[in-house]
Structures are given as structure tokens and as C-alpha cells.
Design brief:
With about 300 residues, this protein is of the alpha+beta class. The protein folds into 3 domains: about 55 residues, Structural Genomics Hypothetical 15.5 Kd Protein In mrcA-pckA Intergenic Region, Chain A, CATH 3.10.290; about 90 residues, 2-Layer Sandwich (Alpha-Beta Plaits); about 80 residues, 2-Layer Sandwich (Alpha-Beta Plaits), CATH 3.30.70.1560. About 30% of the residues lie in helices and about 20% in strands. It is built from 10 helices and 17 strands. Strands 7, 8, 9, 10, 13, 14, 15, 16 and 17 form a 9-stranded mixed sheet that branches. A 4-stranded antiparallel sheet has the order 3-2-5-6, with no helix packed on it. Strands 1-4 form a two-stranded antiparallel ribbon. Strand 2 and strand 3 form a beta hairpin. The two termini are about 20 Å apart.
């Protein structure tokens, strides 16, 4: 734990066009030319007549093709991308579902690759209407004096003020941090992921840097790690806790997966300590690397995948 926290702390304190068919070298130049031009000879007719017949057949063939919505009209989007943006699956997986007949548009089953969805179309996947809104994942390094709420009746500063320009979609904080607690706070419009990251059964780990008003007794750290440790008669499970190498003995690193309100502060208040600084430096594997206080960034594709695959 100590080495893990030290490594983190050091980091936190420091951006098809089709090609022409290949010629068969075994053919004469004349044969190659005929092959390339796809000249079809019809018995009893001249070459000119043959070309005319072929041209007419080709035109008839085009006229018989059904008209489909594959043009990239203004505001349209490919069906596979539409499904991916809704968080259903990847584009490649979406192609499989479309081909299998799992998707309908305006009540009609669509199996055509490249189908364009228009703004007012109703798309259903396995009989469920889906939302095309792009999923956003924004990570904020929260400063002090901001409260975690969408709106405050008293006019106080909220974390939403800090991410107002992050994206056009409406995003929401995943969990919360107290007004005086700093550090990592994730925002998203992905309701399924937000529910997962806040549900106790998934044991999402968080690491905090805690500064107290006085030196911490070693025996208190041992007691905090005890499987019998309780706060308000409710068991509290702390994964790791230790002093921070090179820092005063009133500073500790603590790793927990509990989501109880103000749990870190309550742990130390239980022993008579007062928390003077509390900073969340790791959340579900995400870190504060290259993220200054008060700033935000969008998660990378890899980070999003890791969050969705976390257990």
C-alpha cells in the first residue's frame, strides 16, 4: 500500500475505390483487353450490338434496384454507429445484430449494412427503443469549496460549474465529494456505468490522501484494518492504510471500497482526530496524472473499457 500510494502521490504532484483487375500474364493483350472491358459477345450479333444489349441490361438492372436510405443526408448517421453511440455495443458487433434482424427503424426490420438513420427515426433494438445520445465520460480534479450537486438553492458554487463546457450532453456526477474534499470526481450520462460504479457489490476502490490535526498512533492504524472494526455499529472494511513515506506522521494513505457518506472522516473522528485535508487521488483505477486542480479531461477509450470491465 505504501509503495502504491507513494507512486501515485509522486505522479499526482507533478496531453475504397475498387482497383483495376489484375491482368493475367498468360493471356494475350487482346484477351486481356476483352477481360478488362468485360466485353460480352452474343452469338449472331456484332460487337456494337453486343455492347448495346449489355448497356440496356445494365440500365434495367439499375432501375430494378430498390431505393434505400444510404445517402449521408444532413443529420443522418449510420445505423451501426447509432447503436454504438447508444452504448448497446461496438460498431462491429452492431453489424452482426443488424444482419441478424435485431434492429428495426420506424417499425421496419433493417438488415442492410450502411443504412442511414434520420433525426426523427425511431430505432428499436430487441423491441426496446434506444437513445442515440453519445456517451460522455469526464474526469474532474475537484477543488475545495465546490459542492457536489446539480443545482444549489443557496447559490453556492457547484461542481457542475466546473464541467459546464465539457460537452453538449448533460452529464451527472458519479457519487459525491464533500465541499471541502478535493480530488477525482467522474461525470457521465451513462446511467448503467454510473450505477455500477456506485453499487457496493462491485467494490470500486478509492485511495485518499488524508492530513490530520495530529500524529496518528500506529495502533489506531492496526485497529482500522481489523475485520471487527465498526463505525456506528456498522462494519467498515478498509483495504489498506499506511503512513506516507517522507511525510509527517499526521499524513496517511487509505484505500477503501465503501461508499458510505463521509466514511473516511468518520473513521478518523472515531479515534479523536480531525481531518484537515482530504484528497481523493485514485478512483476506480483513474488517477490525477496531468490533471491540475479545477480542470477536467475526457476519458480515453481504454479507460472507458477498463471501467466497464471492472468487477
Amino acid at each position: 500500500m505504501r509503495k502504491k500510494f507513494e507512486d501515485n502521490k509522486r505522479t499526482y504532484n507533478k496531453t475504397d475505390k475498387d482497383s483495376k483487375p489484375k491482368r493475367n500474364s498468360s493471356l494475350s493483350k487482346n484477351d486481356q483487353f476483352k477481360s478488362d472491358k468485360r466485353v460480352i459477345k452474343i452469338k449472331g450479333k456484332s460487337n456494337e450490338s453486343s455492347k448495346s444489349v449489355v448497356k440496356k441490361q445494365f440500365i434495367r438492372k439499375i432501375e430494378k434496384q430498390p431505393k434505400t436510405k444510404t445517402t449521408n443526408e444532413k443529420g443522418s448517421i449510420r445505423l451501426n454507429k447509432y447503436l454504438a453511440n447508444a452504448g448497446i455495443c461496438s460498431r462491429r458487433e452492431a453489424d452482426v445484430y443488424i444482419k441478424s434482424g435485431n434492429v428495426t427503424v420506424n417499425g421496419k426490420t433493417i438488415t442492410e449494412m450502411g443504412y442511414q438513420v434520420q433525426p426523427n427515426d425511431v430505432v428499436r433494438f430487441d423491441d426496446t427503443t434506444i437513445n442515440p445520445e453519445t456517451k460522455r465520460y469526464v474526469l474532474l480534479n475537484k477543488p475545495k469549496d465546490y459542492i457536489t450537486t446539480l443545482d444549489d438553492e443557496k447559490g453556492r458554487k457547484t461542481v457542475m460549474d466546473l464541467v459546464a463546457n465539457a460537452c453538449d450532453e448533460r452529464i451527472y456526477p458519479v457519487g459525491r465529494l464533500d465541499r471541502n474534499t478535493t480530488g477525482l470526481l467522474l461525470f457521465t450520462n451513462d446511467g448503467d456505468l454510473a450505477k455500477k460504479l456506485t453499487h457496493p457489490k462491485y467494490n470500486i476502490h478509492k485511495i485518499y490522501h488524508v492530513v490530520l490535526d495530529k500524529k496518528v498512533e500506529k495502533e489506531h492504524l492496526v485497529e482500522i484494518l481489523s475485520p471487527d472494526f465498526k463505525i456506528e455499529d456498522i462494519p467498515v472494511f478498509v483495504d489498506e492504510i499506511s503512513f506516507i513515506e517522507g511525510s509527517p506522521k499526521n499524513e496517511v494513505g487509505i484505500e477503501i471500497h465503501s461508499g458510505r457518506n463521509r466514511i473516511v472522516r468518520k473513521i478518523f473522528e472515531n479515534f479523536g482526530y480531525s481531518v484537515t485535508k482530504l484528497d481523493r487521488v485514485v478512483f476506480a483505477g483513474l488517477t490525477k496524472k496531468d490533471l491540475p486542480r479545477g480542470k477536467f479531461r475526457h476519458l480515453t477509450e481504454k479507460e472507458i473499457i477498463n471501467l466497464k470491465n471492472s468487477k
